[in-house]
TrEMBL record, chain A:
This is FtsX-like permease family protein. The keyword Signal does not apply. The lineage of its organism: Bacteria, Bacillati, Actinomycetota, Actinomycetes, Geodermatophilales. Keywords: Cell membrane, Membrane, Transmembrane, Transmembrane helix. Residues 23-198 form the MacB-like periplasmic core domain. It comes from the Bacteria. It comes from Goekera deserti.
Automatic annotation (TrEMBL), chain B:
This is ABC transporter ATP-binding protein. The lineage of its organism: Bacteria, Bacillati, Actinomycetota, Actinomycetes, Geodermatophilales. Residues 1-12 have a biased composition (Basic and acidic residues). Keywords: ATP-binding, Nucleotide-binding, Transport. One of its GO terms (cellular component) is membrane protein complex.
Amino acid sequence: MTGLIGVFVEAWGEVRVHKARVVLSLVGVFLAVFAMTSVTGLGLIVAQVQQEQSERSTGRSATIQLSGFDQTTGAPAPAAEWDAAVGQLLDRYGVEAYATVAYRDALFRLPGGTQQLQVQQVSPSYGPLHRLQPVQGRWFREGDRTSLSPTLVVNEFFLDMLGGGDLTAPRTVVLGGARPVTATVVGVLRDGYRSPTVYRIDHTGLDDARATAAADQAAMMYGPPSVELWVPSAQVDEVMAALQADLPLLLPGISANVYRADDPSLEGTIDTLRLAVRAVGAVALLLGGLGVFNVGLMAVRQRIREIGIRRSFGATSARVFGAIMLESVVATVLAGLAAVALAVAVVDNLPIADLFNDGVPIADLPGFPVEAAVEGLLAAAGVGALAGLLPALLAVRVKVIDAIRF
Amino acid sequence: MRGLDGRGRGRGEGGPPERVGSQLQLTAVGREVRLPSGDLLEVLSGIDLTIGAGEHVSIVGRSGSGKSTLLNVLGLLDAPTSGEYLLDGQPTDRLRGRRRARLRGECFGFVFQQFNLLPRRTAVENVAAPLLYARGREFLGRTRRALEVLDQVGLAARADQVPERLSGGEQQRVAIARALVRRPRVVLADEPTGALDVETGQAVMALLAEATAAQGAALVTITHDLAVAALADRRLRLDHGRLTPMDAEAPGARTAEVVA
Ligand SMILES: Nc1ncnc2c1ncn2[C@@H]1O[C@H](COP(=O)(O)OP(=O)(O)O)[C@@H](O)[C@H]1O
Ligand SMILES: [Mg+2]
């Protein structure tokens, strides 16, 4: 027990006495770990951003899109029956994360004149599934379904069409047609697009009562309303097959249209990106390790006499080995800690959204990836051990009598 | 203190060392080294030497006569290539690695001509250094023990000085404290006054003899200073790797008488 403490005491003493040398050798490790950790951390964040960007349009991994249409007429399935059947299937497969989406056209009476725009009618759950987070106002909530004034969430471009300014209070816009209705903008998204994007809360009582004709027409243009199901990637194929088979049983005459909405190759692409980032970090670390190794080797040569003296006190080979090795590890871990701390501070303060996402705020901007920090520390310790190995072996082989001979 | 108690010392009475029990015993020890040319060089040959507990022995000899080699053999830093070396009656030829290092640390204290203090460590850290390889309470109480021994060599006030700021005499006193800190049974001193001026050398040597005696440890001093040699109970001479008693020789005997 005291033997073990002794090794640590000795290594610490060495680090303390040889501060200058230790610091010198550690500059390399520090820079390498800093480079590695910040590159890895940043890389993982960028990968996350990349993923989000793609998920905003296609849904999270893995999203299944389900729609149904009448085999003979090509019209969408009747809304009430469709809802009931889909609800039953979602229950059966235990799918809890899902959203509905339908494409419609609407006339907007804007300051610059009336325009016909495409509107996505979505359920409140659509936002989280697509990582949509308004920069002003809010996303839809369940309560919006019963609101007399249909609620809208629009992008900044649309807000400009509406006259610009901020969304300090809900803004209204008249949706034209035979019977105009005043809609309320409750949230503004930043998506960077130079064209309007309008989301409208899905399934209000109003829609059901009067919009079947319009809905049928829209379905001809944009396809029937669909349900997006979010399921673990591993279960995608299974769930898709089940939907394909089960839906026609519940809705005779209706044929199911099932496909995967997100890009399955994205996961692979991002994994590759992560791997590349790691590789760059590893090379940086290797170079830093070479520095420690070099200085460590020089230090042992300089300390041959000292090692001989310690031998004369009864230092065993194991102790000599352990002390040199641990000195290297203790020192690199300290440098690693400092480097990781700096990397975290730097990366956390980078304007990630501006740099990598066209200024669009990132919904789930990850904190500094813990794995990158842990990796950095482990790598530092590993480099210390590796760089200490040869000097330690060399130290063990020091011949005592030669070392203390003058 | 374990020093001047019942174990006693044979010092000054000229009696045979066996009287107080022998600790180190060399029988027909030889040490050959292979030179880079491939030839064998006999550094030591036919060494018979017994050193008793608490005895003070000095070995003189010309430079290159094998004195350091002999001391290294005694201190388990080197091993004989022939003959037998018994430590407390146990053969040492089978001792390897860890056990050899442990035994060395426990039984011997070294004092070198060049002091060999660890640079940039304070006096007290230097003195405590051997205790890093001790265990249990010896390890845990190392600083206190180091200060105690520093006090014995009169350097308590300089405990926090690094060697670079100590005089030669002071450095050697730190080295003496370091040699004694683990209460060794034998202190091996290789020309301890060789790097000091005559006066300082005398003082340091007196201190070494006294402090070693106070702990009841045996002392083997290598020197080519006859005055230093004269402090010993027994004086030996090494000549081309062979050991002979010095008192039989005229010059040595004369010096011994003068001092005695
Ligand atoms: N390992 C070795 N290799 C070659 N020669 C050695 C070795 N060890 C000792 N010698 C030689 O043996 C002789 C005695 O050395 P040493 O014991 O250091 O003598 P001393 O201490 O009396 O001056 C010297 O000539 C030295 O060069
Ligand atoms: Mg010598």
